[in-house]
Input
Amino acid sequence: MATKQITLGGEKLEEWEQEVAVEGGRKEEGEEKPPLEVTTLWDYPKQSYGKTPKGDNKYPGVTPAFVIYNLIQRYTKPYDLVVDPMAGSGTTADVCKEENRRCICFDISPPRSDIIPADARRIPLKDETVDMIFIDSPYSDNIKYNEHPDCIGKISCEDERFYDELEKVMRECYRILKPGKILGWLIGDQWVKGVFTPVGFKIFERLCKYFQPVDIICVVRRNQTSNTPLWQYRARKFNFFLRGFKYLFIMRKDTARGNARNRERKEGRKIKWHQYERKRPQKAD
Ligand SMILES: C[S@@+](CC[C@H](N)C(=O)[O-])C[C@H]1O[C@@H](n2cnc3c(N)ncnc32)[C@H](O)[C@@H]1O
Output
């Protein structure tokens, strides 16, 4: 890449501009890379990018590869270890391979051989060994992923048990993640037969028991089965909304120092009054 001469600004600006030129929409060995997002609204017209497929776009509930690309570019460096405990068709594995990140993927019923069969409520990894976790979990029982009896996608989001089981996954994520590192969790709400369930808010509330929120991204939903003229007609006629977005919760596992700071903030700052006591003048002999 030709070096751009920057006459305005100092050395730092020059470095930064060069980095943006590389990361934002770069082309390398014929593989087109997605831009690094700068706002909290992410909208992708297709599931994947580049020449090599990432995941299987026929897999039910497949994740847009762009989402994972953006997270690993921002929160990991080459050779860091990324884990996807509910990996489905392996989009995370494929994105990581192309970006030189180490990756371990698990699923309750893996559709390919490089994904290890495991329950996300019992991840077979040691404590604090992982640099980033990405999860696109089931949102309810709206999609049939597989026949496995332990698939959380068999539980309705209208049942509190759905959140209890996903909280077990959150606890495992907290255990295996190194302090200070990031968990990205993608989830959508549900509207079925007149009943709206704010799945995203409920999941966020549970996540906040373990992690600090870094940001919330709105990922536009495309290519879903309800995106048809018939469903659009029904939405207008029967006065409801089709789901237009998913939440991407970016959460951080706190460091020990951060934990202490947060505890202090929650408990309220304790004032040590003795520091303010007036010292009595000593009597002269
Ligand atoms: C939305 S899909 C993941 C899609 C995936 N990111 C992709 O791009 O293909 C959710 C996945 O969670 C898996 N799953 C459900 N319950 C699970 C559990 N208890 N442990 C591990 N995986 C589970 C399902 O098998 C399904 O593949």
Notes: Confidence is low (pLDDT under 50) at residues 1-28.
